[in-house]
Fold this protein.
Amino acid sequence: MSDAAQPTAAEVRAAAEAVKTALDRHLAAVERRSGEDDPAVYEAFNQLAAAAEVYDELLYDRYDEVTPFEIPGAEDTLPPYTGPEEPNALSVLIRRDYAVAEPQRLLAQAQRIEAADEDSTDAEGASTIHGALGILFGEFEPDEIASRHKEFGLEEGDSTLWVTAAEEPADPGEWLEAPFETIDPQSVVCRFDVSAVFDDEPDDPDDEDDPDDLEDDLDLDEDEDLEPLDADRR
């Protein structure tokens, strides 16, 4: 880069001040947030990321130095939003992945649900993993399964939540056959991803389950190993 194209020292300092301002705004948004997915926090995060990126670029161009931090851009995977400015409808798309970590626990929980259901006529429903999963997800709401997944022998994997905007609600039954194929990426208002690839710290080997402890956990004849089924039935 030529000297004429380099940013001035004043421009670099202005970019640094913009980062400070964005930091204050982000902290204020976090302190006032109304919930885990508060849009104000999400917006402040993106503003902070943008300000930090500008400062990093100017600092490098002017002084051949870089910042010691990197803020991931949450919007990097989304195209620019071109949906309605004042949406009359929205869709929330959620995907959560699980691994069946403890099959015996899953089967035992499904058998308890089935035994408590006086109207159940499927004698073999809880004898297979896929049958047990059907019983589990038929009994509990997905959000409750997410919060109690360890009870059911499941292990969390990646998850994603997309909020999309539309001019009008979809017609009844319109998208049921292919619920995720009709989404326009440019109508996505916000997106929240959770994945192990975002974890900076490796797992502590001391936290790994001891095989003997796992066998104790899977002793499902004892009532204390299973939480009471206190959820409302659908």
Q: What stands out?
A: The helical segments are 9-32, 39-63, 103-116, 129-139, 142-147, 211-217. Residues 65 and 148 are 47 Å apart (CA to CA).
